[in-house]
Design a protein that fits this description.
The complex is a heterodimer.
Chain A (H helix, E strand, L loop, with lengths): L14 H4 L32 E9 L9 E6 L24 E5 L5 E7 L15 E8 L2 E11 L23 E5 L2 E3 L2 E2 L9 E2 L1
Parallel strand pairs in A: 1-8, 1-9, 6-7
Antiparallel strand pairs in A: 1-4, 2-3, 2-5, 5-6, 7-8
Chain B lengths: L33 E2 L4 H4 L28 E10 L9 E6 L24 E5 L5 E7 L4 E3 L5 E3 L2 E6 L8 E6 L18 H5 L4 E2 L10 E4 L2 E3 L6 H4 L1
Parallel strand pairs in B: 2-11, 2-12
Antiparallel strand pairs in B: 2-5, 3-4, 3-8, 6-7, 8-9, 10-11
Classes of the chains: A mainly beta, B mainly beta.
């Protein structure tokens, strides 16, 4: 039998503990006094790589925004290395952690400022296309869901071993689209455009 | 397919769709999740060291000008992986309602008083043995809109990082013997009684501090590697 501590929903009231400054983005009075440990800006002074901004919205089965969702991202640095990679090769950008957390606004909109991740190895040594692991929590979500954000138009997508597991007609749900200076990545929990979530 | 983080233990988790908890109905995935191997991207994860916290971040009774109202309690335990190995350097964050069952969150409109000396947020990092400790007050029960006369059992929200992004856990700690357990669809979303039991803290008389605070123990078990990296070489 399992020994794991079961998951429970993050609930609607996590913000003052987990994203105390998150709401300040759209409501100057919407922040809490508690210090923020994990924010939506991953950029550090020593970061290397192409700076990017990610924006998106998260929507429920009626297409309504989910304002009380929380998204966390985990990514490699611009050179394709994770900050906690086994073997801990020394990074030139040691303070880049590659982890971010965003609250959502009243329209279910989240955002991250980061760098485009480099390629990392996948199963059997095949290189994976640049991607960001996305973990989503929310009221009405008893356990987190995992998805991935890829970059639309990236040549390496064609050979990505994880994308290859996704039915071709659904791969587009994992593609962030370049809109001006922003990579747009929407998450649909249900419906015709339901995002692909992974069983990990 | 590499299964370094076993999936079997996930049988203890609730189903995404649990209709008794109404908000799951429009927010649970409806299409099958896509099974995938664990790659470096899943097997790594952020580590937040002791520089992520400050003194007294784990003492929720010292964040105001005076002491918060309510029953002062110690909540402590170990963060372990599913092979019972301690998880050191794990960031543990918690948040909770005050003794009256009111959150400081701006959206919480429950007509119970706020406590000017209590915000209800804390964080700490486990030591080498995976041990953590908080001092706080016992949270009150509060009503919610899921169904007629719905009340949440007393609980403290926990957010924990293990050593990979797969061991990430958000859960709730309950208190032993709560009379609201049978009526709460969130608690009962975990369908096996033995699994539910692992969300309930135990009263810890031994570590209760006489004349000062009651104590509850809550061990947290995260997904963990089947084998250590050395075993895999």
């Amino acid at each position: 039998m399992s020994e794991l501590t079961p998951s429970q929903t993050v609930g609607p009231f996590y913000a003052y503990g987990l994203t105390p400054k998150g709401r300040a983005k759209w409501d100057p009075n919407g922040h809490y006094s508690w210090k923020e440990t994990i924010g939506d800006n991953l950029v550090t002074p020593d970061v290397v790589g192409d700076r990017i901004r990610i924006e998106g919205g998260i929507y429920d089965g009626d297409g309504k925004p989910i304002p009380d969702a929380m998204l966390e991202i985990w990514q490699a640095d611009g050179q394709g290395r994770y900050s906690n990679e086994p073997g801990s090769r020394r990074l030139p950008n040691t303070s880049f952690k590659g982890h971010g957390r965003s609250a959502c606004d009243g329209n279910g909109v989240f955002s991250f400022d980061t760098v485009k991740p480099g390629q990392v190895a996948g199963p059997g040594g095949k290189m994976q296309a640049p991607h960001i692991v996305v973990c989503i929590f929310g009221r009405g979500m008893l356990r987190q869901v995992y998805t991935r954000m890829y970059f639309d138009g990236e040549a390496a997508n064609a050979a990505d071993p994880v994308l290859a597991l996704v039915p071709a007609e659904r791969r587009d749900t994992l593609m962030a689209k370049k809109q001006g200076n922003v990579w747009r990545f929407d998450v649909h929990m249900q419906g015709d455009k339901e995002t692909v979530f992974f069983d990990v | 397919m590499s299964l370094i983080y076993p999936r079997d233990g996930l049988s203890a988790y609730p189903k995404h769709l649990t209709p008794a908890y109404k908000s799951t109905v429009k927010r649970a995935p409806t299409k099958p999740l896509v099974l995938m191997p664990h790659t470096l991207s899943e097997m790594t994860g952020p580590i937040y060291g002791h520089d992520a916290i400050q003194d007294n971040d784990n003492d929720l009774t010292k964040q105001g000008k005076g002491e918060p109202l309510g029953e002062r309690i110690i909540v402590h335990g170990h963060v372990l992986d599913e092979n019972k190995r301690p998880v050191p350097d794990a960031l543990v964050e918690l948040w909770q309602a005050n003794a009256c069952g009111r959150y400081v969150h701006l959206v919480d409109q429950h007509p119970a008083p706020l406590d000017p000396n209590f915000t209800g947020a804390g964080r700490t990092v486990t030591d080498k043995a995976g041990y953590y400790k908080f001092i706080t007050v016992k949270p009150g029960a509060y009503p919610w809109g899921n169904h007629h006369n719905a009340w949440r059992p007393n609980h403290i929200h926990f957010s924990v990082f293990g050593h990979s992004f797969l061991s990430r856990l958000v859960t709730q700690m309950y208190f032993p013997g709560d009379y609201l357990f049978p009526f709460d669809p969130i608690f009962n979303s975990v369908t096996d009684e033995r699994d539910r039991a692992r969300m309930i803290s135990t009263f810890d008389l031994e570590n209760t501090i006489p004349d000062w605070a009651l104590c509850f123990r809550f061990d947290i078990v995260l997904r963990g590697r089947d084998k250590t990296p050395e075993d895999m070489d």
